[in-house]
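Example 584, ligand magnesium ion.
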Amino acid sequence: MAALGVGLLTLLPVCARRSPVLRPIHRLLSRPGTVAADVRREEQSSGSVETGSEDQTPKKRFSEVQKERREQAQRTVLIHCPSKISEKKFLKYLSQHGPIHNHFFYESFGLYAVVEFCQKESVASLQSVTRTPGLGTEAAIPFRSRCFSLKLRSPSGQPSEPARVPCNSQSPPSSKKLFELLCYAESIDDQLDTLLKASQLTEENTRLRYLTCSLIEDVAGAYFPDCAVRPFGSSVNSFGKLGCDLDMFLDLDEIGKFSAHKTSGNFLMEFQVKNVPSERIATQKILSVIGECLDQFGPGCVGVQKILNARCPLVRFSHQASGFQCDLTTNNRIALKSSELLYIYGALDSRVRALVFSVRCWARAHSLTSSIPGAWITNFSLTMMVIFFLQRRSPPILPTLDYLENLADAEDKCIIEGHNCTFIRDLNRIKPSENTETLELLLKEFFEYFGNFAFNKNSINIRQGREQNKPESSPLHIQNPFETSLNISKNVTQSQLQKFVDLARESAWILHQQDKDRPSPSGNQPWGLATLLLPSVTNSLSLAKKKRKKPASERIKNLLESIKSSGAEGPTDTNGKRTVSTQA
Ligand code: GTP
Ligand code: MG
């Protein structure tokens, strides 16, 4: 995960220069090369296009998207190019193997091109004229993949200075750029929308993710010809941010299914196989072998780690050519189903993704989440919290999982390892919400809701969409929607939860102050969402916390309550900025 929002304080003087003339984002959009121009380019991102959430086009089912993308990836190759290359000549050269449907360039340890042919046969044709390099003193492992290196036979054959090909960015905007964008936005709603558009996966990045899975599938396919490597998690659930990891699932379930019904008569033919004592051991053995293959001859696969004793065994590696940090698991069908469920929630209402992105960014900026596993809240848990909160609105913005299950028909029925994973898969049959609350209100209420949530006795449960008594004593209990006896946030410690609560209260309080004294457009301070991403006063005061009579969170809670009940001025500066006087 990339670290959006980290180090924002150091940017304050630059970003605080907010001119009333330049503030509206559409004015920035007219200036090519500006941050906002980059964002406009990225507005064509996969998240909204795929789900059709921004317009009236029918929304695609998750399985349809996966199928189309997978097929697209199988017609695609990845080519490492010389740094200076004529795009026109490059395309002409490749067109010898068949028409090209799409292509783009990007940089990652050199210049790369992703080229999608119209037909799969073109890939085989290109492979048939490709040679294995002779490396002189080193030896090459002659693995024929869809990752190629294009060399210039005679550099003099190229124009002396070919124009630099336009490169597509695969990284999120820098903290500075993001902060600048937020300061220029017109309203808090606009800020949330801007953050979403600036950091969501682009169409190209999504294609690169499916291509990377497809390349790994080629390696696994050497042993298991009918296997599929499918992306899951934030790469496909519509909550992915540029720079997020690539979760892959080696799907072996399809193997043998097709041949089974072909056998007829009195005979039944079976493969001879090795038996092992449990599914888990089978998973470990398979992943161990695939991990070894990736390590030994997977082009661009580096830093391969086999983490086979984890609850969910996995192989972790970096895919250099795409720049993705990859986690490969197998036997993880429930996680794929969770991704489908989140995809549905993300597509049902355009406010969902905007809110989730902002909450995730806020959490990252305050180190509530981390790319390293530990006692922290995960992005997955935060997404569940936002969904739960939106189910609790009146009228609800999102339906409960039980409701989605009630809408399911016979085709949707899905039981995985004894767990009920049934819900309606056709998004177009789910009625939109009548709730018209703004994103600004929702963000504020989110912080208030969880700033005051009875975590000590209640559990979060998106299946029923209501608070329930906690079945166990973990500080934070978020029920796994499918394996309902499990808590997805069991790892979170009391102190991490308290940090979340403190920050939520402080953020609610800041937004309340800004409500009363909205900063004028000519103000020279960060405002709205940008303020919330600045380092917290509660945090910086936490070292001194023990010396005080009451914890900071209590004082902020009391302040918030007194502001709400009396409408009196709180002890703040006029803009409700993080000068925050949390001292009682
Ligand atoms: P990023 O932080 O952007 O990578 O979000 P993510 O949703 O991809 O999270 P992560 O990479 O940690 O996990 C990938 C997927 O695994 C999630 O989307 C879930 O479907 C599933 N998952 C993650 N953590 C848990 C957990 O604690 N319990 C269960 N049941 N599934 C989990
Ligand atoms: Mg992930």
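Summary: Residues 494-516 form the longest helix (23 residues).
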